[in-house]
Amino acid sequence: MKLAIAGKGGSGKTSISGTMARLLARSGQRVLAIDGDSNPNLALTLGIPADQMGSMPTLPNDILLRTSDGAVLTQTLEEIKASHSVTGPDGVDLLVMAHPQHANTGCLCQMHATVRTIIDAVSNDARDVCILDTEASPEHLSRGTAIYADALLAVVEPYFKSLETGRRMAVLAQDLGLERVALIANKVRDEREEEAVRTFAAKHEIEFGGLVPFDDCFIAAERVSQAPLDHSPDAPAILAIDVIAQHWAGVRA
Ligand SMILES: Nc1ncnc2c1ncn2[C@@H]1O[C@H](COP(=O)(O)OP(=O)(O)OP(=O)(O)O)[C@@H](O)[C@H]1O
Ligand SMILES: [Mg+2]
């Protein structure tokens, strides 16, 4: 299963992507996490120590060859992982999209194409899961970076601008041909907020893909630079993300 996680800035994409990746790896899946944010910070949520973040390898631009038929990787996925991934706790492999090191150095087109082709290269074996954490913009959809994902989960908070961003991303994902598109309600404080997301999803005929309650465990974990899963493994939000992860990875219906 290949999942792209999208949504408005700060909606909780990285918190959910990283925690899902860890939980799925714990339940026996082979997990490849891809940090597709040009301001990457998925590593911390995966439990990779903060002091390693400055020296993380990033994907190079020269492993993609443009051909008349499209683009091909010049290395196998295993070779790319061997030279450019970091393996974090629970065995999650992390690939980080190259991000700007200097100002005025141009666009990330080639990098988006590289990530797109890597996602295509991930096996469709039931034990393999690929989770793409995206940045807070429709770039991954407008550029087609997420085109080989099986599903797009748009993380939304229970307020209009966040819901509307999720809806726009859902429309683009459907346009891209993704088989399944759903809204994940995050930071939900009460039944009224849950109902607001469910009503919005129903009105726009978008699947309601799960709910994560508002939980101080995320902020508490960040305060001490820890992964939420390591800091508060039994917190309500972590348990809720587990339900979502198992469901969307097809492990548990
Ligand atoms: N369920 C939750 N309850 C409370 N706080 C949360 C929850 N989910 C995420 N947060 C907090 O919200 C903030 C944003 O989370 P996160 O970085 O995961 O969002 P993001 O969508 O990846 O952001 P960006 O758009 O910057 O990439 C963080 O401080 C995180 O700790
Ligand atoms: Mg993020």
Short description:
This protein is 39% helix and 22% strand.
Give an account of the 3D structure:
The protein contains ten helices and ten strands. It has a single domain, classed as P-loop containing nucleotide triphosphate hydrolases (Rossmann fold). The protein is α/β, with parallel strands linked by helices and about 250 residues long. α1 (about 15-25) packs across α10 (about 235-250). Helices cover about 40% and strands about 20% of the residues. The strands form two sheets. The chain has an eight-stranded mixed beta sheet, with helices on both faces. It has a two-stranded antiparallel sheet with strand order 3-4. The structure holds adenosine-5'-triphosphate (ATP) and magnesium ion. The site of adenosine-5'-triphosphate has 19 residues, from α1, β9 and α8.
What keywords describe this structure?
binds magnesium ion, 253 residues, Rossmann fold, single chain, eight-stranded mixed β-sheet, two-stranded antiparallel sheet, alpha/beta, binds adenosine-5'-triphosphate, 10 helices
Task: Record the SSE blueprint.
Layout: E1 2-7, H1 13-26, E2 30-36, H2 42-46, E3 64-67, E4 70-73, H3 77-84, E5 86-87, E6 93-96, H4 109-121, E7 128-134, H5 139-142, E8 151-156, H6 160-176, E9 180-188, H7 191-203, E10 207-213, H8 217-223, H9 228-231, H10 236-248
Helix pairs in contact: 1-10
Bound molecules: adenosine-5'-triphosphate and magnesium ion.
Work out the helix count: 10
Succession of helices and strands: EHEHEEHEEHEHEHEHEHHH
Which molecules are bound besides the chains?
adenosine-5'-triphosphate, magnesium ion
- Fraction of helical residues: 25-40%
User: Quaternary status of these chains?
Assistant: single chain
User: CA-to-CA gap between the ends?
Assistant: 14 Å
Secondary-structure arrangement, i.e. CATH architecture: 3-Layer(aba) Sandwich
Q: What is CATH's topology name?
A: Rossmann fold
Strand content of the residues, in percent? 15-25%
Structural class of the helix and strand makeup?
A: alpha/beta
User: Could you tell me the radius of gyration in angstroms?
Assistant: 17 Å
Shape by Cα distribution: globular
User: Mean pLDDT score, rounded?
Assistant: 93
